[in-house]
Specification:
The structure holds two protein chains of two kinds.
Chain A: E1 4-11, H1 22-37, E2 44-48, H2 52-55, H3 61-68, E3 76-79, H4 85-98, E4 105-111, H5 118-125, H6 141-156, H7 160-163, H8 165-174, H9 188-193, E5 196-199, E6 201-202, E7 212-220, E8 232-241, H10 256-269, E9 278-280, H11 286-295, H12 304-309, E10 320-321, H13 326-329, H14 337-350, E11 363-370, E12 375-383
Parallel strand pairs in A: 2-3, 2-4, 9-10, 9-11
Antiparallel strand pairs in A: 1-7, 1-8, 4-7, 5-6, 8-12, 11-12
Helix pairs in contact in A: 4-14
Chain B: H1 3-7, H2 10-15, E1 17-21, E2 27-28, E3 43-47, E4 51-60, E5 73-80, E6 85-90, E7 103-113, E8 120-128
Antiparallel strand pairs in B: 1-2, 1-3, 4-5, 4-7, 5-6, 7-8
The chains are: A alpha/beta, B mainly beta.
Chain lengths: 385, 130
């Protein structure tokens, strides 16, 4: 296998982009990356997206986007794995370059959520669950994660106050990120007084609905210097799946797919969790982030929320997490999220993270979750010495 | 959801039909052709228990399409007395009454309807045993 590098990134602000269509969103992010690498032709395009079919009645996204960013007939395809669509698209792109099949690959993610009303987004998100046996009876995606929170609190006795420190941390980070959807600070008191979406999860524990697109350009590491002075190596990757239905899991307080995907990725990159300087984790809900911090090996089971409250995931702490605001505050345009995470880690490792920069960051990690832990991808990135 | 799609689910939704592995004995809802536990394809249909206990639950305040008029409602993971787990609405109760471990039994109820002249979906819900 060839080594693979990221040579350019592109992204839009995450927002309610009432004036932009899904193709315009993607085009903006893609042109930013193509311009940075000074490239106008590529070998293949992989686009992470979860529900353009539901929200825009548009499938066949690959050709639509290739057409509108002016590419001449490359193979182009949409990759769908619910919230992990972006991470899975990245995996496809890396595989294509590593195998020697393609040299220049664009990996993108896009989601346009504000074309439909709130109950429709709730229904669209519930497509990540077991439709016939969870969504059918009225289970929402938030409700499933809420059930995980209740089970977790029952098992470990962790308080709402401690769990709320994760969204507070993410908003603190986003307040310095110009492309974040919610760039403002919040307090634990605000989290705990916000209304329930699905008990015991409150509004300010849930990532917002927004539109966005993010793009990475990949090429073989040996050719990366032709395009950039600061290539970032993709040093490891892992992906795993679990049961799609939450109720069929023996343990509701851990995502087995995260543990398995991370193990594979750490092994491939020859690192341990302690070696990670910056991480973008999938905090679609407060509890999802807390569990992920534990399953990735950063903290013991039942201890992550306390660690967050002690500042251990702030820049300068044990591991700097979600330094651009995470899903909670940067925003969570579902199929684009895994690519945003990769863009952010690349920016950190390049020393290009602005006010959020973590000094001397060398190794970064992204963890992208589809459904309630049904699919998980983990990627590890390394700055070259 | 189309009529045939609902129709073919009727045995499971009306009668709690699952499957049991004839090798390791694990039961599943809905039925499967392959046992997740031991990998065998020797599974047979079984009628599942109609009583069980709540493993975890949530109260839905933001509904999906079709459930707007029912909020707030309770969704739970239930472990049946034969060990099978499923997800169900919990009905005929106040959310404050519920605890992890609350005993429940199956009832036959309307799940929702599709518009004023569309199909009405029926199926199982569970209610606390008092």
């Amino acid at each position: 296998m060839r080594k693979v590098a990221v040579i350019a990134v592109g992204y839009t602000k995450v927002s309610e982009h009432w004036n932009l269509s899904i193709r315009e969103l993607f085009t903006e992010a893609a042109l930013m990356a193509l311009n940075e690498a000074n490239i106008d032709q590529i070998d293949a395009l992989y686009i992470g997206n979860m529900f353009s079919g539901y929200c825009q009645h548009q499938e066949h996204l690959g050709v639509l986007m290739a057409d509108y960013i002016g590419l001449k007939s490359p193979p182009a395809v949409k990759i769908e794995a619910a919230g992990a669509s972006g991470g899975m698209a990245l995996r496809e792109g890396v595989q294509a370059v590593a195998s020697g099949l393609h040299d220049l690959v664009v990996v993108g993610g896009v989601e346009k959520m504000t074309d439909v009303l709130s109950p429709d987004i709730t229904s669209a998100l519930a497509m990540a669950t077991d439709q016939e046996y969870e969504a059918f009876i009225g289970a929402t995606f938030v409700a499933l994660n809420a059930m995980v929170k209740r089970a977790y609190q029952h098992k470990y006795g962790v308080s709402d106050e401690l769990i709320a420190t994760l969204p507070v941390h993410c908003h603190e980070m986003a307040s310095k990120n110009p492309y974040a959807q919610h760039p403002f600070k919040i307090t634990v008191e605000q989290v705990l007084s916000s209304p329930f979406i699905a008990e015991p999860l409150r509004l300010l524990e849930c990532s917002p609905v927004g539109d966005g697109a993010a793009v990475l350009m990949l090429c073989p590491l040996e050719k990366a210097k032709n395009f950039t002075d600061a290539p970032i190596e993709i040093a490891g990757m892992g992906a795993a799946t679990d049961t799609i239905a939450l109720y069929q899991r023996d343990d509701l307080t851990t995502f087995k797919a995260t543990i398995e995907a991370a193990e594979i990725a750490y092994k491939m990159a020859h690192i341990k969790p302690d070696d990670v300087d910056v991480a973008e984790i999938h905090d679609a809900f407060s509890i999802t982030g807390i569990i992920s911090l534990e399953d990735l090996g950063f903290f013991e089971k039942g201890k992550a929320a306390e660690a967050v409250s002690e500042g251990q995931i702030a820049p300068g702490g044990k591991v700097a997490v979600n330094t651009f605001g995470g899903l909670k505050a940067r925003g969570h345009p579902v199929g684009a999220t895994g690519v945003y995470q990769a863009v952010e880690v690349v920016k950190q490792l390049r020393g290009d993270a602005g006010k959020n920069q973590v000094d001397g960051a060398e190794i970064g990690l992204t963890q992208n979750v589809g459904g309630v832990g049904g699919t998980v991808t983990v990627h590890i990135f390394r700055r070259l010495g | 959801m189309s009529v045939p799609r609902h129709w073919r689910e009727i045995p499971k939704r009306y009668r709690l039909i699952g499957s049991k592995c004839s090798n390791c004995g694990r039961t599943y809802f809905p039925p499967r052709n392959v046992c997740r536990e031991c990998g065998t394809t020797k599974l047979e249909e079984v009628k599942l228990s109609e009583t069980g206990r709540i493993i975890t639950w949530s109260v839905v305040h933001e509904p999906p399409r079709g459930f707007e008029r029912y909020v707030p409602y309770v969704i739970a993971i239930v472990e049946l007395d034969d060990g099978t787990r499923l997800m169900s609405q919990i009905t005929d109760c106040e959310p404050e009454e519920l605890q992890i471990g609350t005993r429940v039994h199956a009832v036959f109820r309307k799940i929702r309807e599709e518009g004023e002249s569309g199909i009405i979906y029926y199926g199982y819900k569970f209610k606390p045993i008092k």
